[in-house]
Amino acid sequence: MPSTSLSADELLKLDNQLCFAVYSASLAMTRLYKPLLDKLGLTYPQYLVLLVLWERDGLTVSELGERLSLDSGTLTPLLKRLEASGLVARIRDTADERRVHVSLTAAGRRLKARAAEVPGCLMAASQCSVAELVSLTQQVQALRDRIKKAA
């Protein structure tokens, strides 16, 4: 562990824990998004799946799982609910039936326009500029990648 000017007692205080700051910020963001996502008929994890598909449609379930850091046991029920609501279609690969591609339906593509207001609510609530949010996002992503590499 790198040396620090904080005592052992200070290091163990909740307010000095980066993990808690990230966790509680995530909870706050999810609460902020909830009313907007409710209007769209989505849960937060379903919204994340759609964000990925709006970037690149037709991914396999494993590619989606890799992009979202979710295992298939978590992702499959999510995809089934999105399919039941008419937003995605799951199609088995004809060359390899173990592979399932996930594609947006017309309704799923149309929902993108309605979802466009969701990211702006974070900017308004955070009172950060676009540049600040971009920088913070990049810092958190770099931290995530270093932690994943170390784990």
TrEMBL record:
<dbReference type="InterPro" id="IPR000835">
    <property type="entry name" value="HTH_MarR-typ"/>
</dbReference>
<feature type="domain" description="HTH marR-type">
    <location>
        <begin position="15"/>
        <end position="151"/>
    </location>
</feature>
<dbReference type="InterPro" id="IPR039422">
    <property type="entry name" value="MarR/SlyA-like"/>
</dbReference>
<dbReference type="Pfam" id="PF22381">
    <property type="entry name" value="Staph_reg_Sar_Rot"/>
</dbReference>
<dbReference type="InterPro" id="IPR055166">
    <property type="entry name" value="Transc_reg_Sar_Rot_HTH"/>
</dbReference>
<keyword id="KW-0963">Cytoplasm</keyword>
<dbReference type="InterPro" id="IPR036390">
    <property type="entry name" value="WH_DNA-bd_sf"/>
</dbReference>
<dbReference type="InterPro" id="IPR036388">
    <property type="entry name" value="WH-like_DNA-bd_sf"/>
</dbReference>
<keyword id="KW-0805">Transcription regulation</keyword>
<keyword id="KW-0804">Transcription</keyword>
<keyword id="KW-0238">DNA-binding</keyword>
<protein>
    <submittedName>
        <fullName>MarR family transcriptional regulator</fullName>
    </submittedName>
</protein>
